[in-house]
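Researcher: Please translate sequence to structure tokens.
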Amino acid sequence: MSQGVTIGEASKASGIKAPTIRYYEQIQLLPSPPRTEGNRRLYDDRDLRRLRFIRHARELGFEIEPIRELLALAGDPNGPCETADSIAQAHLADIDHKIARLTALRAEVARMANCSNGSTADCRVIEALGDHRRCLSDTH
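Model: Translation complete:
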């Protein structure tokens, strides 16, 4: 692609909305592309590959800074893989932590959401939300 594509076309090709593409440029996750005489951005194949990389990483839950590091690693094909693996392992540990927290929250809400008879004066949901001591955990 010699001339490049507009931001709208880049958005369609990458699956990333135009305002988000502009944001990625602003935070320098994506280099600012050249512009036409009419000041329109033009993205090339390399930009589109980078945008697809970013979108896929975001879909997998990676935050911006780890994506920045992974992009730098991707730009050095002879570099060691252990840094990328380390970033992925840290993300995996974060996912495991979130799953454990969500599992505990689910158990707590399931426990308190087990009342369907009576009035709100006797409602376990209202009681538990009004008095944290009625909860199973202190840390939610």
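Researcher: Any highlights?
Model: The chain has two domains: 1-79, 81-140.
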